[in-house]
């Protein structure tokens, strides 16, 4: 049995992984790209992107997105979530610092945030509605 409980899915998604986001791209295949994300169990998943980037132009309130996170070594574990964008707002400095330190650590994250511009950056929130997950450690 390789199924995961909701709590296991949420905890895995909250761990540090680079996600792969999938966004409907009318007239073409879905846009799928790696992305930094953050998630707290029971809350919204969120990402930061440029409002004028390809991702930013496709992500608006009500549009749907998927995100998959996985381990890179066997036995593999992955979690995929899908849901509608619940809100899009300008990215606050604290939000950028939090994301950067999550992925780069305190010192490098603060330096990355200090060298970045907030102009044109948006934070996109999605409430997970559907989950798909496998944990091959359970075999």
What can you tell me about this protein's structure?
The chain has 139 residues and is an alpha+beta fold. The protein has a single domain, classed as Electron Transport, Fmn-binding Protein, Chain A (Pnp Oxidase, Chain A, Roll). The protein has helices spanning 6-14, 54-58, 93-104, 106-115, and strands at 19-23, 31-35, 38-39, 45-50, 64-70, 77-90, 121-126, 130-135. Strands 1, 2, 3, 4, 5, 6, 7 and 8 form an eight-stranded antiparallel sheet that branches.
Summarize the SSE layout with pairings:
Layout: H1 6-14, E1 19-23, E2 31-35, E3 38-39, E4 45-50, H2 54-58, E5 64-70, E6 77-90, H3 93-104, H4 106-115, E7 121-126, E8 130-135
Antiparallel strand pairs: 1-2, 1-5, 3-4, 4-7, 5-6, 6-7, 6-8
Helix pairs in contact: 3-4
Q: Which keywords apply here?
A:
4 helices, single chain, 37% strand, eight-stranded antiparallel sheet, 8 strands, 139 residues, alpha+beta, Pnp Oxidase, Chain A
* Proper CATH architecture: Roll
Q: What is the H/E string?
A: HEEEEHEEHHEE
Biggest beta sheet attributes = 8 strands, antiparallel
Mean pLDDT: 96
CATH class term: Mainly Beta
Number of strands: 8
Look up the CATH topology.
Pnp Oxidase, Chain A
| Beta-strand content bin | 35-45%
Q: What's the quaternary structure here? A: single chain
Number of helices: 4
- Span between N and C termini? 6 Å
């Amino acid at each position: 049995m390789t199924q995961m409980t909701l709590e296991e899915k949420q905890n895995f998604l909250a761990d540090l992984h680079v996600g792969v986001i999938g966004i409907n791209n009318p007239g073409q295949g879905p846009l799928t790209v790696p992305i930094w994300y953050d998630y707290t169990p029971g809350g919204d998943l969120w990402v930061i992107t440029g409002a004028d980037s390809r991702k930013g132009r496709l992500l608006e309130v009500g549009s749907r997105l998927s995100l998959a996170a996985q381990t890179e070594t066997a036995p593999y574990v992955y979690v995929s979530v899908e849901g509608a964008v619940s809100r899009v707002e300008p990215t606050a400095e604290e939000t950028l610092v939090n994301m950067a330190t999550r992925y780069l650590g305190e010192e490098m994250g603060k330096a990355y945030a200090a060298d970045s511009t907030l102009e044109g950056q948006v934070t996109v929130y999605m409430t997970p509605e559907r989950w798909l997950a496998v944990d091959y450690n359970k075999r």
